Amino acid sequence: MNTDTKFLVTKKAGIYGMIGNIFLLIIKAIVGFISHSQAMIADSFNSAGDIFASLMTFIGNKIASVPNDKDHNLGHGKAEYIFSMFISISMIFVASKLLYDSVITLISGDKLQFSWFLVIVCLATIVIKLGLFLYTKHVYTKHPNILLEANMKDHRNDCIVTTFTLLSSLLTLANIYWFDGIVGIGISLWICYTGITIFIESYNVLMDISVDDKTKDLILDISHSYREIKDIEDIVSTPVGDKYLVFLTISLDGSMSTFESHELADSLEKNINGLDKIYKTVVHVNPI
Question: What is the pLDDT of residue 110?
Fold first, then answer.
């Protein structure tokens, strides 16, 4: 993967997200407060959170794109996870406020005033968010990172929750008003769940979670393909951005020359570095 290309497309995704969400925030807030739709008001707060998420994507990507230096030997890749954690915390905060407001609305029995403008805003939101989701998904497939993943899930969630907002608006034509409050509660719980999921993923990386079992098995398969390796004593890994730094300790015949053992270690490092999730491999040789 071309790192420069990855950072460029992530930056574009953040900018497109901000532009789309600012437009949606304005029209949702206006129509939501005019029609007294708790679901649409909740959706407008969600768009405000989306603007923050897109801004965090832009800033986090900019910091993560800074190359390694003498103070940060492995680069600045973990900035992606720090800023994705900011996104997740904002999601949980917004969800808590929306949950409270929706429950109060449901208890008090406030009625949504039907408006065709509300329907139009819902349809516009679904179209814009679906476009942003498909674009971000396309970019994420080619250049996976947690910032793009967070934005992709956010756009997908918005398509779903706005569909329910549209449904709650149409149900008022049949004098069914309680569904609006239920949708507001559902939206808040959905946002909270997504925020918690992203938070856990970011937390795991920042706490140096090990490489996944599938990649570890691939490392073992590559290592076992060298008949000179007598034993694999240890595999230690730490995240570097969306990839992993791997430390591998192998046992070789003590009669091998230093040159031969180092040549084998270099070859092993090169082959493991070819795996998608590997940033760099360091092989330590123990003679037996």
Answer: 61
Encoded amino acid at 193, one letter: Y
Check: CB of residue 84 under 8 Å from CB of residue 147: yes
Sign of CA dihedral 174, 177, 183, 184: positive
Q: Looking at the domain covering 3-206, what would its CATH class be?
A: mainly alpha
Q: Is 17 helix (H, G, I), strand (E, B) or coil?
A: helix
Give the pairing of strands 229-240 and 243-252: antiparallel
Rounded to whole angstroms, how far apart are CA atoms 239 and 257?
A: 33
Residues 164-220 pLDDT 10s: 778 877 887 877 777 777 877 887 888 788 889 889 988 888 888 888 899 999 999
pLDDT single digits (tens) 206-253:
888 888 899 999 999 999 999 999 999 889 998 886 789 999 999 999
Q: Is the pTM of this model over 0.70?
A: no
Using a pLDDT cut of 90, give the percent of the chain over it: 18
Task: Domain 213-287: give its CATH architecture.
Answer: 2-Layer Sandwich (3.30)
**d(C-alpha 146, C-alpha 213), whole Å:** 19
Using CA atoms of 71, 77, 78, 79 in order, give the dihedral in degrees to the nearest 10: 90
For residues 58 and 14, is the Cβ–Cβ distance under 8 A?
yes
Q: Is 228 helix (H, G, I), strand (E, B) or coil?
A: coil
Domain parsing of the chain, residue ranges: 3-206, 213-287
Q: Where are the alpha helices (DSSP H) in the chain?
A: 3-35, 38-64, 79-108, 116-142, 146-171, 178-206, 213-224, 258-273
